[in-house]
Every structure is written in C-alpha cells, then in structure tokens.
Amino acid sequence: MPLQSTKQTRLSPVGSQAHNDGHLPFSMSQIMKIAVIGATGTVGRAVFAEFKPRHEVFEIGATRGAHRVDLTDVDSIRRLFDSIGRVDAIVATAGHVHFGELVQMTPAQFRRGLDDKLMGQVNLVLAARDYLNDGGSFTLTSGIVGAEVIRQGASAAAVNGAIEGFVRGAAIELPRGLRINAVSPTMLEEARESFGPYFRGFEAAPGARVALAYSRSVEGAETGRVYKVH
Predict the structure, then answer these.
(1) What is the dihedral of CA 163, 164, 166, 172, to 10 degrees?
(2) In CATH, which superfamily holds the domain spanning 11-229?
(3) CA proximity to 139, closest of 10, 9, 13
(4) How far apart, in whole angstroms, are the C-alpha atoms of residue 144 and residue 147?
(5) Torsion angle (degrees, nearest 10) of CA 86, 89, 90, 93
(6) Of 31, 101, 114, 211, which is most buried by a Cβ count within 10 Å?
(7) pLDDT of the chain along its 230 residues, tens only?
C-alpha cells in the first residue's frame, strides 16, 4: 500500500483484472463522493483523513460518526444510501472477528467473524452496488492474518481469505464498470497497545501509510486486486 520510502512495509497488488469494459475511470481532478464505513475506527480514521482534503467524504460508523449503519442488516445498508444518495466509492474498514485458542473456540465464536466482518462486507456489495455511480468502486478490508498465521487467529485467517476470494470472484461480474478491491493491512502502529501481544515480531505500519492503499484502490483503475501492506 505504501508508495513512500521505508523498506519495512510494502504495497504489493495480488491478482489482477483489467478495467476495460468501456467505462472511463474518474479524472484525477474530479471531486468524488466517498462513503467510508468504519470511519471512526483505527483504520477508518486514517482513510477518512487521507480522502477528506480533496473529496466529499461521508463518515459512517456502527455506533459513532455522522451517519450510522449495521452491515449485518441489509435494510440498514439501504436506508443509509437512501439517506446520503449515490456515491462514487464505498470503502469498508469495519468488521469484528474472534481471537482465541482453537481448542477452546465455540462455533458461535467462530461464526462471529463470518457474520460480521465477512458477511457484513458481502452484504454491503450486494445491497449497495445500485447506489454506486458508473465506474465507481468498492474497497473492502481483509488483513495480514491468513497470509501470515498467528496463534489464536484461525477465525481471522478464514475470514480474511474468504474476503479476498470474494473480491476476485466479484470483480469479473460487476456491471457498469464497477470495480472492487481489498486492502490487507498489517497491524497498525496506532493499535499496537491492543493487538501487539498477538503480533510479536511483526512490523507495524502507521495508519497514514495504510491509507495510501485505499487511495490507490479508490483513485486508481484496477479491479480484483488485494493491496498488501505487510
């Protein structure tokens, strides 16, 4: 994701699809309407700050923010976009998974990530695609767990892998020149206090660096890609 210096983390696109169905990408000078869901979280705040100086950005959260949405509820998603109207890009940085030892994990705990982080983002694509302008984009969020395994991360690994598979599959079917990508961030510097014990030995990335991958997805022309900041 990062296009700045540093040799510690890199932005590397995985997979590829050409954006070649006749719908022109947005011009570099165009002010876009961007819905950032999860904008009050650690990743979401960085993404919101990246886009805000040059675009019209909607701050959307589950319990905080200027607008509210429950991604597990399709009707809630539709109400949100009925309220804010059509947009040029939808970014999802929201979702929860259970971290815990596999031998003690219950099916209900495992399902939390499936119902929330995975299906929440799938619901968003299925319910909100008609609210995207032609040539618009979805950017979903997976994560380093899955590509790099950690203890107590089996649920997160399954969810992140499924999100990335969904992005690749959906990219070849979306109509009207719509694009879809995912960003796979490592642990953020700003979240080290909470998640550091799970990621011993991992290099963290600052939120501003992670946000560059979302910029590349939204303001670029690629689809079906997973941008890694690992």
Answers:
(1) 150
(2) NAD(P)-binding Rossmann-like Domain (3.40.50.720)
(3) 13
(4) 6
(5) -150
(6) 211
(7) 333 333 333 444 444 454 545 555 566 679 999 999 999 999 999 999 999 999 999 999 999 999 999 999 999 999 999 999 999 999 999 999 999 999 999 999 999 999 999 999 999 999 999 999 999 999 999 999 989 999 999 999 999 999 999 999 999 999 999 999 999 999 999 999 999 999 999 999 999 999 999 999 999 999 999 999 99
- In the numeric block, which tokens belong to residue 92? 């999802």
* Orientation of helix 74-84 relative to helix 119-128, angle to 10°: 50
3-class DSSP state of 93: coil
Q: Which amino acid type is present at position 63?
A: T
Domain ranges, ordered by start, for the chain: 11-229
Q: How many CB atoms lie within 10 A of CB 7?
A: 5
Strand-strand pairing, 226-229 and 11-14: antiparallel
Q: How far apart are CA 89 and CA 139, in angstroms?
A: 8
